[in-house]
Amino acid sequence: MNNVDQKAVNAIRVLSADAIQKANSGHPGLPLGAAPMAYELWAHHMKHNPADPNWVNRDRFILSGGHGSALLYSLLHLFGYGLTKEDLMNFRQMGSKTPGHPEYGHTIGVEATTGPLGAGMGMAVGMAMAEAHLAAVFNKEGYPVVDHYTFALGGDGCMMEGISSEAFSLAGTLGLGKLIVLYDSNRISIEGSTNIAFTENVQKRMEAFGFQTLDVPDGNDLVAIGAAIEQAKLDTTRPSFITIHTEIGYGCPAKQGKASAHGEPLGVENVAAMKENLGWESQEAFYVPDDVYKHYEELAKERAASENTWNLLFEDYCKAFPEMKELWDRYHNDAIAEELWEDESYWTKEEKAQATRALSGMMINRLKDKIPALMGGSADLAPSNKTEMKGEGDFSKENYAGRNLHFGVRELAMGAIANGLALHGGVKPFVATFFVFSDYVKPMARLAALMKLPVTYVMTHDSIGVGEDGPTHEPIEQLAMLRAMPNMNVFRPADAAETEAAWYFAVTAKNAPTTLVLTRQNLPQLEGTGKGALKGGYVIEDSAKEVPDAILIASGSEVSLAVEARKVLLEKGVDVRVVSMPSMDVFEAQSDEYKEEVLPKAVRRRVAIEALSDFGWGRYVGLDGAYVTMHGFGASAPAAQLFEHFGFTVDHVVETVEKLF
């Protein structure tokens, strides 16, 4: 390592250690140990342009070990992405651009929000899948307009988490040759040596998954690291996994190689000792020599040249293939809302009773031609989830142009991959499974909500209507769980009109994910439903009285039950309003005036009807209302018997209303 490279690497270490020490909080171990591999990658092997962080053909870099965020912030500062020294000084402070873990959309240059270990690995697989798909769609001979790598850096914790195995198993099956993983193997976790819980041969595991595996014995050897990265690039048929052996907390005599270097500041004296040990020329906090800044400036210019070359290539491509330029714009343009709103072929009236999962499948196949970027699939449940796009082919090692994704039985990785697809851009992802297995999807859906990604989750078999499969497959608390998640819009449609509205909302959303909660069983088409569902809650059948005697509020399969109960109540002289509530989240976003219009405070007799947990309904039912909901787990029996057994009958709804008088 020559002197300028050594100083450039140590600048990352010093800035990271100083930021963590000033905050008196953070994780110095990874930045100190992984600084050489990060520097070598960013300086000499990664296509990126600090002057244009969103350049579409840039290489992607995901720090899966998000606790090592100081490493990424130091890189962004030194390469000139706009993070200032003051930003580093405000590490982990309120409102700063340098939060404890990297946050997409908050800090320029951060490609993904990472923190839960292994999640970044899954998102990297999604990004590599997006690159492969778009390359297959758009590239022409002599015009590789989509041609970039996805790099992920993570450590032992990322490799222990099951999500990485799920995601890498699929990546190997798909032969994602543009995915390169840098494994910071320092053999230390919070509790001490990884030998206490993690002794497997990681290289053999990755080889079994179908990766090219490479090994760098010395994590400070820039030449060896660079050679491994270039060797990884040469294998175009397999993703690559590079184990780089490092020492956690490298350079700090009292902490190097120890678990105490992982998650606590080094201490003022140890930072000083580290700088002396590294031969740093000043003890001043956040000091970086001018020649180091100059070196990084030159490196940034070299990296930027790759975009200039690509811009010329893309300009020629657009001239040579104007029809592809038009398609490119459709893939990268989200302006579909007005076009869909006016499209009568989308808003069609259905007559026969159908399951909302089947109606959702119809919507997907209507949307696939209107939104060519739409891409998605299921965790081995497409025939049940009804998510196949007819005639669009399967995304595979042999056909990256296919739009139907097959995730296998890997719900957790599926969620992360969906995030990666959305983060990459150019594709609009949806993923699917049974609603009860949203438990497996939830951690990655939470990250999607945090990152404001417009991912669509298709969750079918939404209640005890699952029937004979029994309580293991019958969701109860899952709807309340997703409704409780900030920035997650949850729709449980009652019929075709509401399913159309739910899908419209999902594909036109820009800053939030949407979950569609759908039935296995057939539901009748209702008279009063329609685009009003886009307000989350609305009146579908009203009382003739200015002030209704009571209000029935329901979602999904129970809306038709409320409608039938209203007929019986009317015969008994009780005139009620029926409110369909497909999305509490969207209803809560409406004006107070509208909410009062739908649920007037003067009407205190209210009944919530939903074949799931009553948790969350209290805000609408109030102290004087009642519930027809689930209060325990389900059972194994035909669906019709279960609905009767658990009280989802007209008689029970009527009886519940009458008790309020």
UniProtKB/TrEMBL annotation:
GO terms for molecular function: metal ion binding; transketolase activity. The record marks 27, 262 as: Important for catalytic activity. CDD domains: TPP_PYR_DXS_TK_like (cd07033), TPP_TK (cd02012). One of its GO terms (cellular component) is cytosol. Thiamine diphosphate binds at residues 67, 115-117, 157, 186, 262, 437. Mg(2+) binds at residues 156, 186, 188. The active site is at residue 411. Pfam families: Transket_pyr, Transketolase_C_1, Transketolase_N. Its cofactor is Mg(2+); Ca(2+); thiamine diphosphate; Co(2+). Binds 1 Mg(2+) ion per subunit. Can also utilize other divalent metal cations, such as Ca(2+), Mn(2+) and Co(2+). Binds 1 thiamine pyrophosphate per subunit. During the reaction, the substrate forms a covalent intermediate with the cofactor. Its EC number is 2.2.1.1. Keywords: Calcium, Magnesium, Metal-binding, Thiamine pyrophosphate, Transferase. Residues 354-525 form the Transketolase-like pyrimidine-binding domain. PROSITE patterns: TRANSKETOLASE_1, TRANSKETOLASE_2. It is an enzyme of class 2 (transferase). Substrate binds at residues 27, 262, 357, 384, 461, 469, 473, 520. One of its GO terms (biological process) is pentose-phosphate shunt. Homodimer. Belongs to the transketolase family. Catalyzes the transfer of a two-carbon ketol group from a ketose donor to an aldose acceptor, via a covalent intermediate with the cofactor thiamine pyrophosphate. This is Transketolase. It comes from Hominifimenecus microfluidus. The gene is tkt.
